[in-house]
Design goal:
Chain B: It is found in: Cytoplasm. The structure holds 2 protein chains of 2 kinds. By secondary structure, chain A is α+β, with helices and mostly antiparallel strands. Helix content of chain A is about 25%, strand content about 30%. In chain A, the strands form 10 sheets. A 7-stranded mixed β-sheet of chain A has the order 27-30-31-35-34-33-32. In chain A, helix 5 packs antiparallel against helix 13 (about 435-445) and helix 9 packs across helix 10. Chain B has 12 helices and 9 strands. A 7-stranded mixed β-sheet of chain B has the order 1-4-5-9-8-7-6, sandwiched between helices. Chain B is rod-shaped, with a radius of gyration of 43 Å. Classes of the chains: A alpha+beta, B alpha+beta. At the A-B interface, helix 2, helix 9, helix 12, helix 14 and helix 15 of A face helix 5, strand 1, strand 2, strand 4 and strand 5 of B.
Chain lengths: ~800, ~350
């Protein structure tokens, strides 16, 4: 809503309160005002003048030489290039010394040899938004009405000495979609009284009764609670007065003709949209408010044919729809230059119905915006009368006696009981009773003090958002001033803030992965179906889940919920490599969303996962360091430290696996040992070369794990173990085994063979070579033996070590390498 | 014999004077003092001496040995010093060359900001509550006092999956879930961080997916002044002790009264700059007193308890904090972007 400061002064005395100051008061009071632009963008010394004569310029086809009376006492010679300049027209004249928006200074000048003592101006040159003007006014000089006083400052003529308050209204303050509503607010904030129009008093009684001309019926009262109409006879269509056009332009509304302008003017004034029908085109004088019928069409005022649907509310005459209720009038009943009698409508349509229709047809208007937020029932008739009075005044015409109505304005008044104690306790304030009483009065809310500092407050229908005591407390708070509310600490018992175990685990995980050289990614949780289909063993499809589509996606790229994290990291890696960041190490912790249902009937499962990706080099090449490619064991090593950190290392198993889209020879499934057996928690491995190619990536190593399964198992208890008091004995051995034999299995066998004396065992080298043959490899293992209570003898160690050799020989056909 | 010993002293000291390398020195040491050296050679003749002469000659021999040893030690020390100096010279490196950095990653700036905010509230005794990103219409709207025909519930503005299920448009449904889980218990003090979704076209300042953090306190006597006190404490922890807040009346369906919260512009300290559009204030939060209907939906009696709630967009806080020009940077995962948030 754009509010003209000068127009507002019709209703309230703002002496001493500048527009900017009022705007600040309103913003601090809850009506946010984005900006307060001046309507005068830098015009000085421009006056209204009369073009007395117009001659062709002797040396220029497109220029005219005019004699202009600008009320200065002597005629000015002005050269003008506008196509619509003509003798007898009154136009804005920038005299010598004048300034125009953009800093243009008018000087005495010669144009193609002819002297010019000023400039005739278009609306645009005066800084007026000429898009709101009729085409002929946009293309040349701004033609002023014939009765404009010569020499009058254009600032007065066009009401440019004004500022616009640009309101950014919250949904609960639709009362301020009207000048009167804003005036009420200004009155509440300033404490100054209001002067409001009283149209009912200005109506002149007429002989004829409107009820004899038209009948109103409401077929669907749930969608139209109240409809009122007046019949005005003998109007003369023409332009509206310039002051009214100025105000419409200031509000951003296009002036059209006196009747249309008056309906718009009253809509801006009262917040009540109005519509005028050409009475001659209302068949049978019947106004019927009903739902559209199957197959009905209506050509709306914008010239477009609209196929109506049975949920749309229309105004119909005896034969056909003539308007879309609250949305737009029909061309078939439009007021034209030939209109003589009009039917003026003021009604209260259901907001939801208007919104549905206007959205569906893509027809949003000032009127529909107001209906959507529900209009004030008390103003339906008042606005009708106000418009009737203005039409009689500015379009001639006789307003027939009486408004023809159906439905009613009556609404149970909202009465709220509230006491001072509740207000102050709720706000933490000590506002005195007298101030609260003053606030009720400034708001114009009738309040009865039923007991000491207890009130029954009647809420006027214009403030439809207020129905509870807290709503009234807000009114008190905002008028008292939010700044005046003190800052206090919460009273009552203290509470301890702490992270839950999953929250703490995720924080630790992030820290650990970042410390391991990975950057955290955050990717969209809505992806393309193609991405959601990758990694069947991770995306739920192996268990029969399907990606969940959005009902109305904005694009194919973002149309289903994410079922697996890795594709997002692949995209991020490709994105980075395309930008020459070749060494990519990323992780993401986020939810994937799965359902087994064909169509959702309940909330789907959301599982928190961690995914990681490594590609390129482990660390950037430097003067003292060669580049080294990341490999499977980098990814695995990161996971190892994660499990170490969470006390799970001993319970995690890695086994070779061939899930889809992974490299079949370089991938492990991870399992977690639980009381009931091992459960799968995810995969770590290299991407399948086909997928690497698809994303234009080199060797890329990834992992994705379910976190929910880990949370309850995580053991963070630290238990100190006594430092060993007796020495350990180390024995290394190298065995030749089949190429397929897994290091993990050799270590496990050693542990089994030795038992308690073994402190640790591990692989320290793997060798393959021609000498061994293609199907063999040599694995070097180190073993450490220790007894906690005494020094081991050489014999004991040798005996244990021999058991190792035997075991490896029997289980793997291992040969000791000498 | 005495003469031979004296002669040996003179000769040895003379030759030692000439020694210029450690090898020659150790050769001379062996030559004079070794098991088969000159001194031992001479002393072999001690057996032939009389009992009177023996101690005298022994004394002389010790003096000679002492003199030679002292010179050798002195020489040896000099050679050692030289050697050390030589080694240190040869080991000199260029200390201006870059160090060997461990490959380090970072958490995402949105996580960083979220954790900072979480930490402030954890310190103030809040718990962190979480909830599903896919929500029912009931929890996302109905229970938050957004009735069926509310404009914000339009299909155009939210990502619906079915008529009744949608991607949450705010983290507020977590408040309802947390209240219900609390089962009437007070005080309830939570913050709810998480991803939310709205049908916005992505541009420099809008993203269809973004992050929110909301807070909720419910108790027997929670006042609007407590809300102001809490927010002041929070912004001063986040932005410094001199930060102030300013509340402007506003509207949210789930709070009454409602307010938008401005904080002193961190960039200019309130004197006005480009960042705050020369107002000295920056809007970062929405807040209010929990609407009685919302309390009822949460299982509380609004006659018995009151509450306040607040919410902020993590992206907005991060954009302002780091002066980032485009919200889309947060989701591209560009390493050149992610790498900029290394400082604590």
């Amino acid at each position: 809503m754009n509010v003209s400061y000068q127009w507002l002064r019709d209703y309230i005395d703002l002496t001493g309160i500048e527009a900017a100051e009022l705007a600040e008061m309103m913003t601090r009071g809850g009506i946010e005002i984005d900006s307060v632009p001046s309507r005068n963008l830098g015009v000085t010394q421009v006056v209204a003048g009369l073009v007395k004569t117009k001659e062709k310029h002797p040396d220029a086809d497109k220029l005219s030489v005019c004699t202009v009376d600008a009320g200065t006492g002597e005629d000015l010679q002005i050269v003008c290039g506008a196509p619509n300049v003509a003798a007898g027209l009154k136009v804005p004249v920038a005299v010598v010394g004048a300034e125009l928006p953009g800093g243009l200074k008018i000087k005495r000048a010669k144009l193609r040899g002819v002297e010019s003592q000023g400039m005739l101006c278009s609306a645009k040159e005066l800084g007026i938004n000429d898009k709101l003007l009729p085409k002929e006014q946009q293309e040349g000089l701004y033609i002023l009405p014939a009765d404009t006083q010569l020499g009058a400052s254009i600032l007065d003529v066009l009401a440019l000495d004004d500022s616009i308050l640009e309101l950014d209204l919250t949904p609960n303050r639709s009362d301020c979609l009207s000048m009167l509503g804003v005036a009420y607010e200004a009155s509440a904030l300033t404490g100054r009284p209001l002067t409001l129009p009283e149209p009912a008093k200005e109506l002149v009684p007429a002989d004829e009764r409107a009820a004899d001309k038209i009948k109103v019926t409401i077929g669907n009262p749930e969608l139209c609670a109240h409809y009122s109409a007046r019949y005005i006879r003998g109007v003369k269509i023409g332009p509206s007065p310039l002051w009214m056009q100025n105000r419409l332009i200031a509000a951003g509304v296009r002036p059209i003709s006196n009747i249309v302008d008056i309906t718009n003017y009253v809509m801006l004034e009262y917040g009540q949209p109005l519509h005028a029908f050409d009475a001659a085109k209302v068949a049978g004088g019947a106004i019927d408010v009903r739902l559209a019928r199957e197959g009905e069409v209506l050509v709306t005022l914008d010239g477009k044919e609209r196929a109506l649907e049975p949920h749309m509310l229309v105004i119909a005459d005896a034969e056909k729809p003539i308007a879309l209720a609250g949305v737009m009038g029909g061309l078939n009943s439009e007021v034209t230059d030939d209109t003589v009698d009009i039917v003026l409508e003021s009604a209260r349509f259901d907001g939801g119905s208007v919104r549905r229709t206007s959205r569906q047809l893509g027809l949003r208007s000032e009127a529909s915006a107001r209906f959507e937020k529900e209009v004030d029932p008390a103003r339906v008739l008042e606005a009708l009368d106000r418009a009737a009075v203005l039409i009689a005044k500015y379009a001639g015409g006789t307003v027939l006696d009486g408004a023809v109505e159906a439905g009613s304005a009556s609404l149970e008044p909202v009465v709220v009981t509230i006491g001072l104690e509740r207000i102050n306790r709720f706000l933490g304030t000590q506002i005195p009773s007298l101030e609260v009483k003053t606030i009720w009065s400034r708001l114009g809310f009738p309040a009865v003090e039923t007991a000491e500092a207890q009130w029954q407050v009647t809420v006027p229908s214009r403030r439809n958002g207020i129905s509870r005591d807290v709503d009234l407390i807000e009114e008190v708070a905002r008028l008292h001033g939010y700044d005046e509310i003190p800052t206090t600490p919460i009273e009552g018992p203290t509470t301890t803030g702490a992270l839950t175990k999953p929250q703490a685990v995720r924080r630790e995980l992030r820290k650990l992965l970042a410390g391991a050289g990975l950057y955290e990614a955050i990717s969209y949780n809505v992806v393309s179906p193609a991405r959601a289909a990758l990694f069947p063993q991770l995306n739920g499809s192996a268990e029969g889940a399907k990606p969940i589509p959005l009902a109305m996606p904005m694009s194919e790229e973002r149309s289903v919920l994410r079922t697996v994290l890795l594709p997002s990291l692949l995209e991020a890696a490709a994105y980075n490599q395309a930008r020459k960041s070749n060494d990519v190490a990323l992780f993401e912790i986020a939810s994937v969303i799965h359902t087994a249902e064909e169509t959702l009937t309940k909330l789907p499962t959301e599982k928190t996962r961690v995914a990681l990706l490594l590609t390129g080099n482990r660390a950037a090449e430097a003067w003292n360091r060669k580049a080294e490619k990341v490999d499977f064991y980098d990814a695995k090593g990161i996971l190892d430290s994660v499990f170490e950190r969470f006390g799970l290392a001993d319970r995690i198993g890695y086994s070779a696996a061939q899930p889809e889209h992974f490299h079949p020879g370089r991938t492990a499934e991870l399992t977690l040992e639980l009381a009931g057996g091992a459960v799968s928690i995810g995969y770590v491995g290299q991407l399948h070369p086909d997928l690497q190619r698809e994303f234009d990536l080199g060797d890329t190593f990834v992992a994705e794990l379910e976190l929910a399964a880990l949370y309850p198992e995580i053991d963070t208890a630290i238990k100190y173990r006594t430092l060993p008091r007796y020495p350990s004995v180390e024995r290394d051995l190298a065995v030749v085994v089949g190429i397929e034999t897994q290091g993990g299995a050799l270590v496990a066998a050693i542990k089994e063979a030795v038992g308690e004396l073994l402190e640790s065992a591990g692989v320290f080298d793997v060798y393959t070579g021609e000498r061994l043959g293609a199907d063999k490899k040599s694995v070097a293992l180190s073993t450490v033996y220790r007894h906690p209570e005494r020094t081991l003898t050489d014999e004991e160690v040798t005996e244990a070590h021999n058991r190792v050799l035997t075991k490896l020989e029997q289980t793997f056909g291992a040969e000791l390498r000498k | 014999m005495k003469e031979r010993l004296e002669g040996l002293r003179v000769e040895a000291l003379e030759r030692l004077k000439e020694v210029s390398d450690p090898n020659a020195l150790s050769e001379l040491k062996v030559h004079y003092l070794g098991k088969k050296g000159q001194l031992t050679e001479i002393l072999r003749g001690m057996g032939a001496l009389s009992a009177e002469e023996r101690p005298v000659i022994g004394q002389v021999a010790n003096d000679v040995r002492g003199a030679i040893e002292a010179v050798i030690a002195e020489k040896q020390e000099a050679f050692d010093r030289e050697e050390t100096a030589r080694r240190l010279r040869s080991e000199t490196i260029d200390v201006t060359l870059p160090g060997k950095k461990r490959a380090e990653g970072l958490i995402h700036p949105l996580t960083k900001v979220t954790q900072e905010i979480e930490d402030v509230f954890l310190g103030m005794g809040y718990e962190i509550a979480e909830g599903p990103e896919v929500e029912t219409d009931f929890f996302n709207f109905e229970a938050l006092n957004l009735p069926k025909n509310h404009p914000a519930r339009d299909m155009q503005d939210s990502f619906y999956l079915t008529d009744e299920i949608l991607l949450r448009t705010h983290t507020s449904p977590v408040q309802i879930r947390a209240m219900r889980a609390a089962n009437g218990r007070t005080p309830l003090k939570i913050i709810c961080p998480g991803k939310v979704y709205r049908r916005d076209d992505d541009d420099a300042t809008h993203s269809f997916m973004f992050h929110q953090i909301e807070g909720l306190v419910v108790g027997p006597n929670i006042r609007m002044s407590d809300l102001k006190g809490t927010l002041l404490q929070f912004v001063q922890a986040m932005y410094g002790k001199n930060t102030q807040i300013r509340l402007r009346p506003s509207f949210f369906p789930f709070t009454e009264p409602s307010a938008e919260v401005d904080v002193t512009c961190a960039q200019c300290g309130g004197s006005g700059c480009r960042m705050c559009k020369h107002t000295g204030w920056i809007e970062i939060l929405g807040c209010g007193m929990v609407h009685p209907k919302v309390l009822e939906y949460g299982g509380y009696d609004p006659k018995e308890v009151t509450g306040f709630a607040f919410g902020m967009g993590v992206e907005r806080i991060a954009l302002l904090k780091y002066d980032i020009d485009d919200i889309r940077h947060f989701y591209n995962n560009d390493l050149r972007f992610l790498g900029q948030f290394a400082r604590m």
